[in-house]
Please model this.
Amino acid sequence: MRLVAVTGIGVVSPMGWGKDVFWNGLIKGRDFGGQVTYFDTTRHRYQKAAEVPGKVGANDGPHYSRMRRFTEFAAREAIEDSQLELPISCPQAGAVILGSLLPNVQIIDFLRNKRNSGNNNRGNSSLGLTVASSFAHELAREFGFCGPCMIICTACASSTNAIGHAASLIRQGRCEIALCGGADLLTEAIHAGFGVLHTLTNGPCRPFDHTREGFFLGEGAAILVLEEMEYAKSRGASIYGFIAGYGLSNDAYHLSAPHPEGEGAAKAISAALVDAGIRADDVGYINAHGTGTTLNDAAETKAIKKVFGEHARLIPVSSNKSAFGHAQGATGAFEAVATILSLYHSHIPPTVNFEHPDPACDLDIVSRPRNARLGFALSNSFAFGGANAVLVFKAVFRRETSDDGIRFGNRRRLT
Amino acid sequence: MMVFVSGTGVVLPENVPDNNLLLPFGSPRRPHDTLLNSLPLEEKTLMRALRRVSRYMRLAIQSADAARGDKGGNGESCDDLGVLLGTTLGPSREILLFEESVYKQPQFVNPFTFATATFNVCAGALAIAMGARGACSVLTAELCSTAYAVAYATELLKLGSSRAILAGGVEELSAGMKEYLDAGGYDSTEVWSEGAITLFLEAKGNGLREPCGAILETASVSYHTPKDLLQGIKYCWSALHSRTPGVNNVDTKIIVFNGNAPISPEVADEVVNVFPENVLIISFMWPGDPIGLVGAFDIAASFYELSTTFRHEPATRLVYFCVGFHTIVSFLLCHPS
Model:
């Protein structure tokens, strides 16, 4: 079976611009939320969010141009990280699959412009920029990729879905390389929407904590370069790890609330394990969806226990949303990056602000950075409309002897 | 491996039950119980709550209901039934209403308005109405949205991830969305269309009713220049046949092109030269411009063509190209026998 390797990573996050600053921010265990500056929050109940710092500010341009800047930076960093030489020899072998909760962010610009100026001028007349999948096509054009290109929009599971679909395309031989991930912006509309659902908090986000009250929104973009293993080997690529499995399901229960028993989530996790061909006790770490809401964390705990049984309490679990916020459609990509880097570094980032264990969430919640040799790890994403998506990642390591003995988790150039 | 299309449900402009409370399949008064479970339980609020089922959701549910009815059978387990939809505009009316309500009173936005303004709410509502607990996804790929959805569903069925999938899409128009499209440089005299289509895809026929068609293979590319477009079509043509064992490109007698993307006459001449001689090239026309729905519409129409005009030649293969502004999605289709 064709293996899917992760060879490049690029991130724009509330920690800053770049993959390294993202990972260092996660390991520090810091809360990167703060007062919203992009829009006036005096009429909103909640004022906290995690914004991407520097370079792009509230008045630097319309929403679409910010989305483009995020995705372009992340994609460039990922391509440079992978050391992929462009243009690729067969353009149709390169796919671009992204995820976003609000793919047609241009319409927000249109409505704001119309309201402010009283006319219908969108500021550009390009047909291509009207459609929701524009920023994926622009990325494909920039890097000369002519393979499958689309945006998946399953709310908070969008980019997990996108990464899984890209991996499936490679496994099935539909393409050899894929730029995949997700991007989303902090917008007043989405902030208000989550606010009226009472899922936000002005205080710290505390996933799985007994005193949890909700989350704050984040934004940014995270892009991974996926390559078929033999293709990566042929050019001597360095790899972070593999995408071993992918599972999807739907709760078929409620449009905005998860199934209270975690039925659909358990189904997606099981499907991912089956797809990866691994047993439940092979999993060494779970990067949880962990929004810090009462319903989600309890349901996710039940789902994990359903699948892993007694072994569930032995698996380290952490949620990164308390660090960088809920980046909406991009959150799955952020968490995928966090998971693959956890495997690569053999180091699990903590769940920030976790202090009071909840009996309803009696899992091994990682509250401090932890070293761990990891073979396989899961990344969960559960979304509006009952959409569930789970990825299984596999570590790459080669035993090598040195004066210090055997080392694991080193990125190796394949020959 | 073939993927069978066992049922088709289409909602076109003339049969959208506007201003009626469209209930999912079942009795004329009460909705499916699983949808009911997601709504407030008090009877007095039921009808008000049902109005929360937006038009975008209703279109998806009605077309899926029709596809399931077309397929026949009832009472089957839906644990493995997936939902894969494509849309270009998304819930246009709800997005505009939601944004306006945020602008006026962000603290008092109706929570239902937010939930119904997300692109994947149509799939979520459909899953609740049908009790479908399999793979679920919504994607957007400009004019090829539903074509990609059907292609993605085909791949999932071939992988064995699902037993059956409802694949298709929804497009919903609104006054504000038309204004947005006109401002984007589209011809303001363009007649936009809306509706929904669902194809019931299965990995193997269940014998209840003869499938209306089979999908042998799919291939998709994107393009950025006219030269890329030509290369893309050549690539798809070659990939469809090389990936299907035992099928030669001379077995393909019909080529269907959608008529939405602007292709210059020079490029069109070169495209025609890609194909063997004596192949029939046709294009279907729909009422108005159905935007992202055109892909699934054309697939359904292609099967109709195979089962009627070419019913005496069951070995006939058909290749369908859905050509969007930047994307090409292609299918190798045949009669299910």
